[in-house]
């Protein structure tokens, strides 16, 4: 990518903003470059598939690790077994790391081919701030978040809604692993997405973006895989757990996906809107 500096009023020492070269025509991108991109993204998809579906899923790994840590500090009855499978977890993490690294390389290569900024991907076109859309998605995400937190609170307090076996959670308290802690994390997640949507001041970007990214990595794959599995079970007329209502998976996993996609969109909008001007092209 080349940037040119022009002196619009021809005064010495006065420099105009950098300009981008025009994007290359489609025929200027060689078939070899296109083929490299295609096979590269196939490789990314393969590694993501390993991370999300090989002997488990990375989304559950994140949840199990968090719940296992919570369980260390909880003396309540542990009804749900949160035990990460460390060898396979490391394989899935390595696959995801490889996918991210390859994807970054392909994105940078694609930017060079399009003659856009290699560092940030921006062109000379003015960037739009989708603030209103972010706010709408943030409020919409509260529906699945609130419903999930309400269900876990209901069970923790002795409720039997959606349970075929009312005794399955006997001895559970609000602070048993997988109950009150998930309610608290759901509440914190709601605060986090609102903070990004409304650009609350005095909150460092990374303090919001990093936990949001972890939430996305957990919710989106879990929502996709869980929804597909729950739908398959419903079609076959079988149940995941006889102690739970047959429809519970369909009521829980699709909202997980909606929640994760809303969080993803709001995080991207927030990250782009609050980023500093690019040190390479000056766009911001």
TrEMBL record:
It comes from the Bacteria. Residues 1-28 are annotated as: Disordered. Residues 1-12 have a biased composition (Basic and acidic residues). The keyword Flavoprotein does not apply. The chain crosses the membrane at residues 38-55, 88-107, 136-155, 175-196, 208-232, 244-270. Keywords: Membrane, Transmembrane, Transmembrane helix. This is Uncharacterized protein. It comes from Natronoglycomyces albus.
């Amino acid at each position: 990518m080349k940037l040119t500096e022009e002196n619009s009023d021809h005064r010495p020492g006065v420099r105009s903003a950098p300009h981008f070269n025009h994007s290359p025509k489609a025929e200027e991108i060689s078939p070899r470059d296109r083929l490299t991109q295609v096979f590269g993204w196939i490789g990314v998809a393969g590694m993501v598939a390993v991370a999300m579906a090989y002997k488990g899923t990375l989304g559950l790994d994140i949840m199990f690790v968090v719940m296992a840590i919570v369980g260390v500090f909880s003396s309540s009855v542990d009804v749900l077994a949160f035990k990460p499978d460390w060898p396979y977890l490391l394989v899935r993490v390595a696959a995801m790391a490889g996918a991210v690294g390859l994807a970054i390389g392909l994105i940078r290569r694609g930017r060079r081919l399009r003659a856009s900024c290699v560092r940030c991907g921006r062109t000379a076109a003015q960037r739009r701030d989708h603030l209103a859309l972010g706010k709408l998605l943030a409020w919409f995400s509260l529906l699945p978040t609130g419903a999930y937190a309400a269900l876990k609170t209901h069970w923790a307090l002795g409720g039997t809604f959606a349970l075929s076996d009312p005794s399955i959670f006997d001895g559970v308290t609000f602070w048993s692993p997988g109950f009150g802690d998930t309610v608290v994390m759901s509440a914190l997640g709601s605060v986090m997405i609102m903070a990004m949507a409304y650009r609350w001041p005095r909150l460092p970007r990374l303090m919001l973006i990093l936990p949001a990214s972890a939430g996305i990595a957990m919710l989106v794959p879990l929502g996709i895989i869980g929804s597909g599995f729950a739908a398959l079970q419903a079609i076959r007329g079988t149940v995941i757990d006889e102690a739970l209502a047959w429809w519970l998976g369909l009521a829980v996993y699709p909202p997980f996906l909606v929640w994760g996609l809303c969080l993803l969109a709001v995080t991207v909008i927030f990250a782009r809107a609050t980023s500093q001007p690019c040190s390479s092209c000056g766009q911001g």
